[in-house]
Amino acid sequence: MQFIEALKLRSKLFFLFILITLGLISVGIMGTTYVNSMKKNMDSLYFGSLVPVTELNDIIQTYHIGLADTIYKASRLELSTDETIFAIENALKEIEKRWSSYMSHFKRDDEMEYISYTDMEIRTTNRYFLKVLNAVKSGKDISNLSINTLEKQVSNIHYVIQKLINYEVRVAQYERKKFLDTYRHTMLQIGVVLSLIIFGILVVLMYVFRSIQDDHSKLELAAKKLKLANKKLENASYTDTLTTLHNRRYFNFVYERELKRAKRNKTYITFMMLDIDYFKQYNDTYGHVEGDFALKSVAKVLKDRLKRPSDYVFRLGGEEFGILLSETDESSSAKLARDICDAVRFREIKHENSQVSEFLTISIGVVCCVADEALNDEILISRADEMLYVAKESGRDRYIITSNVSSAKAKIVA
Predict the structure, then answer these.
(1) CATH number at residue 250
(2) 262 burial level (CB within 10 Å; 0-12, 13-18, 19+)
(3) Tell me: the pLDDT tens digits for 296-320?
(4) Domain holding 54: CATH number?
(5) Which of 132, 218, 325, 391 has the least CB density, counted as fewest CB within 10 Å?
(6) Is 106 helix (H, G, I), strand (E, B) or coil?
(7) What is the pLDDT of residue 290?
(8) 394 & 258 share domain
(9) Residues 169 and 309 both lie in one domain
């Protein structure tokens, strides 16, 4: 086993994979061979004996009930001519169908001679009943039909077919004994071989796992470092680098999760869409450095006002921000929006080219409602966008709130 110790971890795992694969293939081949053997025996037992016995019994019953009883009743005028013809024709068709089905099954060479004899007897008997059928069709009176001849025909064919049934039963008993012997022998072989395979695999696996365990501590250390790096990378991928708020990517993730939770609990959910008023003019006037400062200032206001674990603040892009709140009713949402507008204005960031104030201001579109299953996933975003548009059209430096997500009924608040 020294060569295992010399292998690298990847090689050890590959060796382990090959070992298990070979073991499974070996088990699979043995299992397939056994199943095929089992199928062959079952097929011989079932299709060679059980189904034919049923078919032969059906033929006997048809001769007795479908033909003999029908002719008895017809001779005593208990059946009409049409009923008699119909019954005899159906019975002969059923016998032909059952016999053809029986003949289609697997037959051994040693039984073909008697089957040929039985086939001849069936055809002879059927010719007798065809003569009776033709007599009925031609309108002849069959009341004087020889009952002795009829019974002789039926008894003879019954005897012939019954002998065939007895043969099939003996074959079934023989096949069952043969099958059980094969089954026991095969199970013993499989048990021995599988035990050897499993024992061999376990011995080798013990050495492989022991070797892998030696590398485990190194892997753990590497995994911890990787986890830390992934955490940092994940935070970076979900964070806006300028404002350190959550970015649009994280919004898409959180929005779907929080909306589902609100629907499940049937609680309030609020979404606010914020936009800095006349931000393009601000950038044109003061430059992009001051523009970045203004964005960070608005972000700080949002961080200071929204500190609950269930409060989420996002920079959605450019000068546009988003706020997602859970379990906050319309009154509380409106108060929070008003406080945010006031807090941004009170920072007194100069904005000479603003048409609403000498200081930097924001406009907010707010949607607040109780979530249910009927709430469309996109309606909060689209309705908040509509409310933001209304806020801008209404003079800016204000928020517009609605609780109706089916139609735009909004409260306009300066």
Answers:
(1) 3.30.70.270
(2) buried
(3) 999 999 999 998 888 999 999 889 9
(4) 1.20.120.1730
(5) 218
(6) coil
(7) 93
(8) yes
(9) no
